[in-house]
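4.2 Preliminary Data

To establish feasibility before requesting continued support, the project team ran the inverse folding procedure on a target of 363 residues. The structure was first converted into the token representation described in Section 3, and no sequence information of any kind was made available to the design step. The complete token record follows.
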């Protein structure tokens, strides 16, 4: 039985494509669970450092002031629930050193999470572009390794574009042309908009600048998603070529390309930012009023659920971008994929089967 690939399916790119993409990715829990667990583990070193420091700091059994005010005779051994002014003053130097140490460690771990995201992108695209019949996890790791260095170069290019965009929006060009020429703000007030007569005018200019920066930031991220998809779809290795052609594709098909990604972003905004954010704030209020380990564990669970949702939506973005790219990207004649077939150049190609009933070659 010949193997069927996702690239051979009809391409539904209507307004509900994002829902189909979320469902398709959610049906593959081994894939998003592995990326979720690896990224979640990056937070463990910082948590261990903070927990160790606080255990040493409260070794003499500090008790928060609220314990004595409650008058219920309950003593809390962990001062982390209520950092009083006296505690922070007594341990000011230690807290400062802890913040510096964890900031450096956090930067390394954040970069590690970025690399995991690059690896996951290759894995998702490998799986989405090919039906794997029970071997999705193996193909996920193969795809992550196959595209890692290409996607890493694309990540560096995206970082450069983001830095340039930030410099453009928050630099002298914005001040000169937007504040000066278009808005009529005196040059003396460019760096200090609080001096304007109208507070509403000041807020409007700040919102305009921040909104333009956010829109450009989102557009560059969407561009990176489609550029990675184009490279995987065409098996290309040139980051500049893929980025250049992707820019034109988004320019000529803005609704088709950006609509599914914007829809997935709105889902993430509602589920993670609004819903889980509200739950977290509620738990923080409970923790402040009646501290307990149960509340802390509940906050940890909420954070892990939010990370899980984001990993599912990460895969959904690549699924949607593949479906859109299959429709708008002109693909040359298919060449035998060395990852899926064997055979001499110019001769017959034999598929490497992996499922029951498939014709396969054993090496």
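Position-by-position output of the design step:
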């Amino acid at each position: 039985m010949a193997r069927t690939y996702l690239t051979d399916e009809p391409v539904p790119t209507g307004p509900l494509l994002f829902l189909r993409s979320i469902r398709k990715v959610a049906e593959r829990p081994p894939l998003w669970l592995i990326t979720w667990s690896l990224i979640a583990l990056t937070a463990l070193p910082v948590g261990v450092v903070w927990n160790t420091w606080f255990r040493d700091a409260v070794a003499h059994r500090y008790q928060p002031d609220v314990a004595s005010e409650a008058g219920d005779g309950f003593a809390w051994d962990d001062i982390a629930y209520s950092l009083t002014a006296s505690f922070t003053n007594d341990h000011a130097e230690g807290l400062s050193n802890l913040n510096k140490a964890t900031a450096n460690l956090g930067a390394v771990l954040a970069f590690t999470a970025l690399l995991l995201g690059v690896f996951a992108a290759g894995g998702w695209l490998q799986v989405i572009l090919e039906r794997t019949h029970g071997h999705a996890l193996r193909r996920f790791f193969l795809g992550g390794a196959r595209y890692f260095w290409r996607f890493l170069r694309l990540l560096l290019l995206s970082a450069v574009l983001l830095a340039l965009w930030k410099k453009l929006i928050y630099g002298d060009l914005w001040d000169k042309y937007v504040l000066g020429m278009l808005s009529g703000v005196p040059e003396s007030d460019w760096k200090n908009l609080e001096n304007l007569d109208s507070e509403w005018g000041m807020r409007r200019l700040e919102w305009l600048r921040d909104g333009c920066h956010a829109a450009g930031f989102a557009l560059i991220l969407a561009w990176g998603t489609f550029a990675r998809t184009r490279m995987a779809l065409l098996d290309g290795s040139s980051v500049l070529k893929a980025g250049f052609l992707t820019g034109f594709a988004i320019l000529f098909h803005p609704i088709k390309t950006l609509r599914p990604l914007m829809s997935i972003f709105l889902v993430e905004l509602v589920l993670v930012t609004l819903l889980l954010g509200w739950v977290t704030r509620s738990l923080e209020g409970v923790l402040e009023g009646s501290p307990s380990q149960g509340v802390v564990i509940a906050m940890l669970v909420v954070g892990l659920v939010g990370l899980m949702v984001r990993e599912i939506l990460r895969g959904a973005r690549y699924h949607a971008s593949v479906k859109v790219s299959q429709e708008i990207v002109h693909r040359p004649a298919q060449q035998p994929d060395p990852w899926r077939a064997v055979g001499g150049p110019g001769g017959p190609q034999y598929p490497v089967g992996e499922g029951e009933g498939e014709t396969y070659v054993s090496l």
